[in-house]
Specification:
mainly alpha; 434 Repressor (Amino-terminal Domain); 4 helices
Length: 88
Amino acid sequence: MQFKDELRRLREVAQLTQESLAQKAGTSIGNVRNYEQGLRLPSFPIVVKLASALGVTCTAFAGCEDVQGEASEEPEPKKPAPKGKPKK
């Protein structure tokens, strides 16, 4: 299951409109629409707010294919600056 599908399912179970979910979560209706259409994935703080507004914990989205592993991915290490004189 993808995040967009689970978000919509949970919203419908909670009997909320996109607008009322957006208000409860402190985000815009446009953001909720984008999340449900799969155009964007929310940041973790927004996931927490959406989950709270839906009456669930953020682990409700843990099984979503498009969010699994994101937290465990490590950013690429920074390359060291080249040694020597800087070019003018």
